[in-house]
Amino acid sequence: MSSESNQSSSRDPSASVLLTATDNGRLANQIIKNIVEIIRNGVPGIKCENITTTDSEVRKMSTKQEEAVASFIGGFNCAQAVLSVFCEKYGLDQETALKTACGLGGGFRSAEVCGAASGAVLAIGLRYGQNKIEDTASKVNCYAKTEEFLNAFKAENSSIICREILCLDISTEDGRAQAISRDLFKVKCPELVRSAVCILEQLGY
């Protein structure tokens, strides 16, 4: 087979099924980087209830906030988006972090605790969590740090409960349909992701 044929085969889209987990991770990261660039270059102003996001405000987001929002827009859930921008700093690889947080989206799939808040709490655990039975001081400290974050998140977003923040229950078919029709997943949820990351940064993470 000629080298030209080999090159043609390597470009065959069907070959994507043979991508390794590492390749998929790199592809996901590239997609996120592309979305970040779109955000940095400005997006149209968006209004939803009392939230307004303008071009200038988007550009003021930190790199972590940009990456988390881009991750969410790119297809990861709110918990994954938040945890993924802090995990490596505290010793957890991004692939494992994304898998770990996967079930937390949509408020534990029941419109309970907001996934963005849950992802943040996982990041707090990575930094302060207890990993030895006798180390009760770490547990107490981690609980305090968790409460500190949750209080700040609640103050900024009125609640930590998904259905209370969105004013509907996205675990139901009707609630999800309403959320889609009101663009909550495109506007409100990315703002909650940004909020969670911003609060963590303000708290020194």
- The number of helical elements comes to 12
- Average predicted local confidence, pLDDT: 82
Q: What oligomeric state best describes the polypeptide chains here? A: single chain
What Rg is obtained from the alpha carbons, in whole angstroms?
A: 19 Å
Helix content: 55-70%
User: Element order, helices and strands?
Assistant: HHEEHHHHHHHHHH
Strand order of the largest sheet: 1-2
How would you explain this protein's 3D organization?
The chain is mainly α. Helices cover 64% and strands 3% of the residues. The chain is built from 12 helices and 2 strands, in the order ααββαααααααααα. The protein has helices spanning 3-10, 21-40, 55-59, 63-74, 78-84, 94-101, 105-111, 115-128, 136-157, 162-166, 173-181, 188-202, and strands spanning 46-48, 51-53. The protein has a two-stranded antiparallel sheet with strand order 1-2. The longest helix has 22 residues, at 136-157. The protein is globular, with a radius of gyration of 19 Å. It starts with a helix and ends with a helix.
Summarize the structure.
With 205 residues, the protein is an all-alpha fold. The chain has twelve helices and two strands.
